Amino acid sequence: MSSARENTVAAPTDTVTVVYDERVLAHQPDTNAAFLPGRMDKRIRQIIAGLDVPWKYPEHPGRVTAIRSLLEQSPLPGLSWRSGRAATQEELAQVHTAHYLSDIFRLRGQNAWLDVDTTAVSPGSVEAAEVAAGCALEAVDAVMEGATETAFAVVRPPGHHAEPVRARGFCLFNNVAVAATHAQTEWGCQRVMIVDWDAHHGNGTQDIFWADPDVLFIDLHRAAPFYPGSGTLEEVGAGIGEGSTVNIPMPDGAGDLAYLKAFNDIIVPAADWFSPDLILVSAGFDPHRFDLALDVSYQGFGAMTGVLRQLARRHCQGRLVFVLEGGYNLESLANGVHAVLQVLTGGEVPPPLVRGMAEVEAAAAFHREAFLDTERN
Question: Domains in the chain, start-ordered, CATH in brackets?
Answer without folding.
Answer: 16-371 (3.40.800.20)
